[in-house]
Amino acid sequence: MTKTYAPTMITETIGFFPGSVNIGIVVTADGAVLIDSGLDTQTAKKTKKGLDEISQPLHAIIQTHSHADHFGGNHYLLAQYPNTRVYAPVLEAAIIENPILEPIYLGMGAEPLAELRNKFLLAEPSRVDQLLPEKGPLKISDRTFEIIPLPGHSWNQCGVVVDGICFAADSYYSPEVLQKHRLPFLVDAEETVKSVRLLQQTAYLGYIPGHGDFETDCKETLQYNLEYHQTILEQIHELYTIHPSSLEEGLQIICEKREINITNMTSYVLFRTAFMGYVVGLNKQGRLEYEFKENRLMIRGK
Question: What contacts 195, CB < 8 A, 6 or more positions away?
Fold first, then answer.
């Protein structure tokens, strides 16, 4: 049987390339519009084969956010389709154009260690031709895309809705993905929860997360995400209420509680950033405060 790379179509013109990162596709009068481009050149080559199978040139790429696994395919695809236009949110665009910023911010602003210069944290640079609106309609070719703000996982992450199908980026995950990572990556837990709640108020025809399965009804998945984040928030709040301590000690205790074993620098910076994102969320809610004691950042619950 001949292997196919064609996308999984939801409607005649809307679908996605399933994988570790789902890549959305919308067929327009001028060719395909991709929602994100995946991790790397290998993924992008498969995407191109899929476009070739359905006889669609690449017309545009809409980036939902600036993590390497969502725009790493741009470098190859733009070389194959040089007239393709790239759209991205404000701030996220700066990182897409200057990918070294991702390992820089994960490394707390310092020069990135060699171990952090890997394809999961450092993609090839990509141009951005047009900034996305914070929210509202975007016309590309003969199709109208609705941009919705879904921050939290990344600062200006957005979702994309077309003909009732919502490409939700990493605003939520499948239960399997949450159980795998145990402390999901985010930069602001409060904004993440708000984004999940925003999606709970919608009634789109279908939802495609960046990681997970397409669902026509994702109410249970969204509720699972909400409760998952709330559980972590309560664990961290309880920890710092009972045992005021440093950020590092808190991270260590929560990782042990959630059966996370950090063994390399990439995992460390991702889990540390995620943990800080929950701490920031609790601080914004007025439930955590911090002080400096003996040259250490100390956190306690309120």
Answer: 149, 150, 151, 152, 153, 157, 171, 172
Nearest to 298 by CA among 263, 246, 252: 246
pLDDT digits (tens, 9 = 90+) for 225-234: 999 999 999 9
The closest of 284, 257, 100 to 194, measured between CA atoms, is: 284
Strands (E), 190-261: 206-209, 245-246
Q: Give the pLDDT confidence of 175-201 residue by residue, as tens digits.
A: 999 999 999 999 999 999 999 999 999
% of the chain at pLDDT higher than 90: 99
d(CA 221, CA 224) in angstroms, rounded, equals 5
Q: What local confidence, expressed as pLDDT, does residue 36 receive? A: 98
Shared-domain flag, residues 24 and 155: yes
Residue 272 belongs to domain spanning:
230-301
CA distance 158 to 62: 10
| Of 170, 200, 222, the domain-final residue | 170
Residues 66 and 139 in one domain: yes
Alpha-carbon distance of 100 to 114, in angstroms, equals 12
Distance separating alpha carbons of residues 75 and 37, to the nearest angstrom: 9
CB within 8 Å of 154: residues ≥ 6 apart = 65, 66, 67, 92, 170, 187
**Global pTM value:** 0.96
Helix axes 265-284, 247-257, angle to 10 degrees: 100
Residues 247 and 166 in one domain: no
Helix (H, G, I), strand (E, B) or coil at 37: coil
Q: How many angstroms separate the CA atoms of 43 and 84, rounded?
A: 18
Q: Please give the single-letter amino acid code of residue 188.
A: D
Q: What is the CATH number of the domain that holds 247?
A: 1.10.10
What pLDDT, on the 0 to 100 scale, is given for residue 302? 93
- What strands lie across the sheet with 288-293, from one edge to the other? 245-246, 296-301, 288-293
| CA–CA gap between residue 136 and residue 87 (Å, rounded) | 14
